[in-house]
Amino acid sequence: MPTMRRDWDYIIIGAGSAGCVLANRLTEDPDVRVLLLEAGPADRSIFIRMPAALAYPLQSDRFNWDYRSEPEPFLDGRRMHCPRGRVLGGSSSINGMAYVRGHARDYDRWAQSGLPDWSYAHCLPYFRKAQSHELGADPYRGGDGPLRVTAGEMRNPLFAAWIEAGRQAGYPVTEDMNGERQEGVGRMDRTTHAGVRWSAAKAYIEPIRDRKNLEIRLQTLVLRILFDGRRATGVEVATGGGSERLSAASEVILCGGAINSPHLLLLSGVGPAEDLRARGLPVVQDLPGVGANLQDHLEIYVQQACRQPVSLYAATLPWNKARIGLEWLLFHRGPGASSHFEAGGFIRSRAGVEHPDLQYHFLPIAVNYDGSQPAKGHGYQAHVGPMRPTARGRLWLRSGDPRQPPAFVFNYMGTEGDRQEMRAAVRLTREIFAQKAFDPFRGEELAPGEAVRSDAEIDAFVRRRAESAYHPSCTCRMGPASDPTAVVDADTRVHGLEGLRVVDASIMPDIVSGNLNAPTIMLAEKAADRIAGRPPLAPQEVPVWIHPQWETRQR
Question: Is 471 one of the annotated active-site residues of the chain?
Answer without folding.
Answer: yes
